[in-house]
Amino acid sequence: MPNFTATAPGKVILFGEHAVVYGQPAIAVPVTQVQARATVAPGIGLPSGTIQVQAPEIALDSPLRALPLDHAIKQAIDLTLAAVGVAQPPAFKLKITSTIPLAAGLGSGAAVSVAAVRAVSAFLGHPLADEQVNAIAFEIEKIHHGTPSGIDNTVVTYAQPVYFVKGQPIETFVIHTPFTLVIGDTGVASPTGIAVRDVRKAWEADKGGYEGLFDECGRIASAARRAIESGEAGALGPLMDENHTLLQAMGVSSPELDRLVQAARAAGAAGAKLSGGGRGGNMIALAREVDPDRLANALMEAGATNTVVTTVGHR
Ligand code: PMV
């Protein structure tokens, strides 16, 4: 039996994070400069039926059966075995590596799930279709994030820009004119589930106020889609700035995020906002009439721990 390898990209949310959990549209795009990779190899020398899981970056080297039930990689394997209908798989080793920063809003969890599901199902001779891969990755997101919208697993599975409305069929869309983003990492690890839970509590305490904020985010996401499809990149920067103000009002920004957003604008970004769950993790800045490397340097000077430059719409 040969080895099987699958990869999945990172992602950033351009518009509509948090509001998307409450039914508003959001836009997310793949970030192909970073990726998760899963390789399945036959378990030569392993006792029959043994599945060994290795993820060197998190110092994991364990038989599957010794992993806790809620371990994301265990769930990816168990759900895949159930989906392909294989109860007694041959011994195999699953090795996961990833260049996607953890807990930073770049979709690392979803990418690991998607790559693992693809590699394991292909190894077992039943490569799953994107729709099934996406459904399994969503199940895993639910266990780890509480009430995820499904946007992360969707953009990572299809590796295409998506206009996402929770519970509705996936809409990918055309990028008329590619545009360049600089992603800046605050270095503050911030699990998405906590920010999502806090927004839920705040919404429960002030439904009217929060729904007003969510509606505005939805309006921005639809306007952004129109701008991206028609190549009016000039409209995007101000929409990013507006979206950041709304996220601040929801309580999901942080001093570190605000500092990087300000630094990006001061260095000539056409717009900037936090991206993803917030509180830490990443922000994004639109580089239109400024060299993206200059923006990246300005972000590092303002305290970013890492930057990624990505052009959206270039395949
Ligand atoms: O932190 P990230 O990039 O995984 O994004 C989470 C996006 C939220 O809207 C905050 C949550 C969700 O499930 O959509």
Describe the model.
- The protein is α+β, with helices and mostly antiparallel strands.
- It has two domains: 4-172, Ribosomal Protein S5, domain 2 (2-Layer Sandwich); 179-312, Alpha-Beta Plaits, CATH 3.30.70.
- Helices cover 41% and strands 24% of the residues.
- It is built from nine helices and eleven strands.
- Strands 1, 2, 3, 4, 5, 6 and 7 form a seven-stranded mixed β-sheet that branches. It has a four-stranded antiparallel β-sheet with strand order 9-10-8-11.
- It is globular, with a radius of gyration of 20 Å.
- The relative contact order is 0.17.
- The protein binds (3R)-3-hydroxy-3-methyl-5-(phosphonooxy)pentanoic acid.
- The site of (3R)-3-hydroxy-3-methyl-5-(phosphonooxy)pentanoic acid (PMV) has 16 residues, from α4 and α5.
Question: Which structural traits does this protein have?
Answer:
315 residues, alpha+beta, Ribosomal Protein S5, domain 2, Alpha-Beta Plaits, 2 domains, seven-stranded mixed beta sheet, four-stranded antiparallel beta sheet, 9 helices, 11 strands, binds (3R)-3-hydroxy-3-methyl-5-(phosphonooxy)pentanoic acid
Order of helices and strands: EEEEHEHHHEEEHHHHEEHE
Question: How many helical stretches?
Answer: 9
**In this structure, how is the largest beta sheet organized?**
7 strands, mixed
Radius of gyration: 20 Å
Which architecture of the largest domain per CATH?
A: 2-Layer Sandwich
The overall pLDDT average reads 94
Count of beta strands: 11
Q: In terms of per-residue confidence, which ranges show pLDDT below 50 for 5 or more consecutive residues? A: none
What is the oligomer described by this structure?
A: single chain
